Amino acid sequence: MAFTKQEKEQIVAQYNEWIDRSKAVFVLEYSKMRMPDVNDARAKLRENDGTLHVVKNRLFMRVLEEKGYAYDKKFWEGNNVVVFAFEDAPSVAKALQELVKGRDTFKIRSGYLDKANLTVQQVKALADLPTLPVMRATLLGTLLAPASQLVRTLAEPARGLAAVIKANADKQGVAA
């Protein structure tokens, strides 16, 4: 299908917007792609604030070059879909791992994180990282642990004194 120059400019502008908004970009190879697979993939990625798009390789390479991404022209031959992670790259990578597991429709080929090229193994390692909410909770727990220990330490003598008074009161109540 041939595109006019104006349509190509609109496509390039859309690619530019997606790359500017994304924290990470993943490249997948597809074969025997069926719409139920695509819809399933898009739904899973949408849950993780990601999106999947079939791209025009030549136009996408032009955008990568403009943005300063390293790429190999031979890599972009064939059928590729690009996944953009707009917020949390590890959660989108996890969703991709689930998508490719047990299916022959998609295959992870590469990725970009902060303009650095990622190999398949690095994308899988990124998928093994905890998601952003989990990391935030871990960090918050680490920061709050000393404060909660201090509060417990300061409250312990008063709690011990209250226990002694209660035990004494119970003892005198039984004796009466």
Description:
The chain has six helices and five strands. With 176 residues, the chain is an alpha+beta fold. The radius of gyration is 27 Å and the shape is elongated. The termini are far apart. The mean pLDDT is 84.
Element order: H for helix, E for strand: HEHEHEHEEHH
Shape: elongated
DSSP helical segment count: 6
Describe the main β-sheet briefly: 5 strands, antiparallel
Q: Which radius of gyration do the C-alpha atoms yield?
A: 27 Å
The share of residues in helices is: 55-70%
As a percent range, the share of strand residues is 15-25%
Strand order of the largest sheet: 2-3-1-4-5
Number of strands: 5
Question: Uncertain segments of ≥5 residues (pLDDT<50)?
Answer: none
The termini sit apart by 98 Å
Class per helix and strand makeup: alpha+beta
Overall mean pLDDT stands at: 84
Structural descriptors:
5 strands, five-stranded antiparallel β-sheet, elongated, single chain, alpha+beta
Quick overview:
By secondary structure, this protein is α+β, with helices and mostly antiparallel strands.
Write the layout of secondary structure elements.
Blueprint: H1 5-21, E1 24-30, H2 35-47, E2 50-54, H3 57-67, E3 80-85, H4 89-100, E4 106-113, E5 116-118, H5 120-128, H6 132-175
Antiparallel strand pairs: 1-3, 1-4, 2-3, 4-5
